[in-house]
Amino acid sequence: MSYNEYLNRSKELSTQSGYFKAVNTLYYDRGFEGFQHYKNLIKISLEKASKGTDRRKLIAADICCGKTMWISRYFPNYCKTIYCVDKNKSALSVLPSSNCIAINKAVSNHIFPKNSLDYIYCGFGGAEEFIGDFHNMLKPKGCILISKVVYGDDIRFTDYSARKVLDRRRKISQMTKSIKNTFKNVRVARMSFGMTYKNPDTDKILAALEVAWKTKRLGQDQYSRFSKALKSRIKNNRLTIKQNGIIWIAVK
Ligand SMILES: C[S@@+](CC[C@H](N)C(=O)[O-])C[C@H]1O[C@@H](n2cnc3c(N)ncnc32)[C@H](O)[C@@H]1O
């Protein structure tokens, strides 16, 4: 374990497809605490869309889908068509279900016609910029699920400063306001996501956090501090990372 090791890992992950390797390293390769709960919230939102629009098979969009593609990976049978939208081409290289259509574009208000979708999922992306656009794209009584990480462990492996937590909370409460002003029947759920690593490779985890959270490459001093903080959290060869998220389910 050394600064050079960390630098090599960080450079390996600094490509478009490296971003997804980083996210997989941190979250999906191992599953995570909260996974079933999150999946259940998605199921509730899909069923709301079905009931509201009176369609057994939905026209759905997974916007900012990344490689995770929750809807086509776990819920393809709820949908007639799933448009998977991501501006990053490498996110769309594998389509998990046959009813999935890849759209390699940045989100904009004319990416889908007005009133054309029964359901929108926008998980852990930049949904705050598009609340009004999502409302336009949805059919009346269609349903949307939006999620975001609010705060939690980041690359420093020390607590967020009070100021940073406050700033994040302020942004999230603005988003709740904007969703409530735009949509009806807004349900807000909060949950904790937890990832546990056995015999953790701390350089790999630091590099993956840097890439996934889009922080600057660490200098040698920072590396020493963060690596030490991270190692001090390992108990019985296990390291747990926790993040707190918020999920909004809303109806047009
Ligand atoms: C955190 S990942 C998505 C995770 C996934 N949706 C989930 O719920 O686990 C964010 C994705 O959003 C994409 N993205 C960010 N801004 C975008 C934009 N303006 N238009 C389209 N895709 C965008 C990125 O390329 C990345 O693949």
Characterise the protein shown here.
By secondary structure, this protein is α/β, with parallel strands linked by helices. It has a single domain (31-199, 237-251), classed as Vaccinia Virus protein VP39 (Rossmann fold, 3-Layer(aba) Sandwich), CATH 3.40.50.150. Helix content is 38%, strand content 27%. It contains 8 helices and 7 strands, in the order αααβαβββαβαβααβ. The protein has helices at residues 3-12, 16-26, 35-53, 70-74, 131-137, 162-182, 202-212, 220-232, and strands at 58-63, 79-85, 100-103, 117-123, 138-152, 184-198, 238-251. The protein has a 7-stranded mixed sheet with strand order 3-2-1-4-5-7-6, with helices on both faces. Helix 2 packs across helix 7 (202-212). It is globular and about 55 Å long. The chain binds S-adenosylmethionine. Residues 64-66, 68, 70, 85-88, 91, 106-107, 123-126 line the site of S-adenosylmethionine (SAM). S-adenosylmethionine (SAM) binds at residues 64-66, 68, 70, 85-88, 91, 106-107, 123-126.
